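call fold target=Tryptophan--tRNA ligase
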Amino acid sequence: MSGDDPHEETPETAGTTGSESGEPLPDGGAAGADDVALDPWGSSTVSDYRKLFEEFGIEEFDEILEVVPNPHYLMRRGVIFGHRDYRPVAEAMQNDEPAAVLSGFMPTGDPHIGHKLVFDEIIWHQQQGADAYALIADLEANAARGMTWEEIDEHARDYLLSLLALGFDPEEGTLYRQSANRELQDLAFDLGAEANFSEFQSIYGFDGETDVSHMQSVVTQMADILYPQLEEPKPTVIPVGPDQDPHVRLARDLAERMRFFKVSEAYASFELEPEERDLVADFHERLDPADFDDDTLRCTHVADALEETPLSDLDVDAATLDSVLTKLEEGGMEPLRPRTRFFDRRATEEAFDALIDAIDGEKRVYENHVDAFEIDRDEAEELAREVEVENGGYGFQPPSSIYHRFMTGLTGGKMSSSVPASHISLLDDPEDGYSKVKAATTGGRETAEEQREKGGRADECPVYELYAYLLSGDDDEFAKRVYDECVGGERLCGDCKEQAAQLMKEFLEEHQEKREEVEELLEEADIELESPRRR
């Protein structure tokens, strides 16, 4: 989750893929890639962003863009290409309801233009009314990267200055470092009770050689992700690169495991797996209770109807059918009725009793669950969360996430902090920034004549990415004009790079002036600038 260097070890694809019509497409990537691997500590391979939708369940951001209030240009241009469950955050901001944004930075080097994407995403959410959190992942930097506390402090200050210079409001937002936040560490301890080593092996590839402190840093990151909900549960988004998705998935799982109650739909006193429940729900709708002796639909009636239906007409496999038939036959003459189930996951006795009292209408109480017949699923979720919080629980909502593309290195291929020419630091001398852009690889043709005839390849051009991600700012028309002029053969690489280099120089000059202006603001901010662990 922490933004160590999201471009350090990760092969990139071009930031925007062009179509035959000359329009920039939001779903770019290298078509035909064979696989996708995600590793939050730097060995990720994201060859085709579209495969993330298929293999990891990341959803396309374009599908919810219309519900986002005042979408940021990174969203409009498809730089933010995917999300997990972002709709609750967007709707909360739209309705002026509580929401939060959080992301972290592992201070292992200078902040650069790749980190600016995350800075901008945090700041934009803050401007839309969300509670904003930015953290320095110093425990992770020490445990996973072996950074000294002195090195961490030096880089942390630079990250914070750039964040403030770009517009983060420390009076309205929260800044912290992992090592100095006791609330965070207490939460991490609680979360650690719900995680285990075999899970870390599966997700992160940890083995017998992995330091315990490295494993502990993962639990700390889970606490970071859930930290904005300590005071009250609310929709929370974590803006990251796709390599950090394993952290988000684990945090969503842990948020659920920490809940006192699980709310689900049921049809009888026994439990059904999701596919089994869908099958029973389908037959509950199909069958007419009036067709049976006592005008009541019972478990055995549905079992009989299922046995009479060819497997080829059912949207399940044979094993699922056998399982649901066994459960229904054991249920016998029990009436089959839809109900909302509150399952006791880890509630205290007092909380379980409070839940029973809070449920209005017809209900049935069992040892480990309560079935309610007059409350729908959404109402039940809110009631369960309310009872949990009132009885000392967290009531976490599963955190959401949005994912941005990696920027291609200026020299082509990956952007790496170990290759200065491949990236631009926010601390670079403006003249050096100008020179790096002038020397950058482009998507141009071999000759000017060929470029005019065939057009440039903006979708393969690191310089065009600079326009789309940074240099065009909020001006979509300018970004599109650069693209169209390139692919149309009107724009040649020399002039294009000169314009980009000049804009980059101006950006760095302005940014560094602002960094000086916010020095005092940083000193006054509520964050320890020196690690308490320094000796």
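return ok
Residues 428-522 form a domain with the Tyrosyl-Transfer RNA Synthetase fold (CATH 1.10.240.10). The longest strand covers residues 100-105.
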